[in-house]
């Protein structure tokens, strides 16, 4: 499917509800994606072979065998339309999810918009672990967004409602679909099996000069994955000038990460699983 920009209606939908689904947007690359996905998970490192007991997470992910996804006109269209032409790539993760994922936001960004592009690689619905979102929950300045903070993750306590029964929109998926959501949007997954395959591409707005410390602080949180740089060598070394536009601000601001990660290696048994 070709797509060079989102329509005004798609942008309005995303801004209003905090998510949008693009059915079968990557159907033409699915075989390649499935192959690269499987190949990216380390086979020789026993600790990283998914055994279904807990989530397995590899970071960075597309950087290893799918860097070119970042050059795809469809990814560029999503980034440019929702974040501006100078958007930043903000890393990726590849996952085998196990069981439920409780309600959470991926961030609480008051100024700069961060979004996640999610590729689920199994057919899923509400009874088998499809992602659910609370429409409008990304609007952290609105009273609704504020009311959800601190309550949604503890729905039993606050509302006497099980996580799976919190009012939400279920994003059924067929492999080839692409889901995009604002990091501030509350999301979760229920009733899934122990082998749900999914990977992400994270993007954000370019930070203004006066907010660069905020960007550096965000980058610091990658230390839990034991990364020396946010992006892999392959991602950096194969970058065209167009791709570099989306890498350079993070590359210029991740110089402190290696030292932080070195500290984490001393205190953590393995890199974080999410
Ligand atoms: O599919 C899942 O279990 C949850 C996905 C998720 O929480 C995320 O992408 O941040």
Automatic annotation (TrEMBL):
Signal peptide: none
Gene3D superfamilies registered for this protein in UniProt: q2cbj1_9rhob like domain
One Pfam match: PhyH
InterPro entries, A to Z: Phytyl_CoA_dOase-like
A GO term for molecular function: iron ion binding
UniProt protein name: Phytanoyl-CoA dioxygenase
Native source species: Paenibacillus psychroresistens
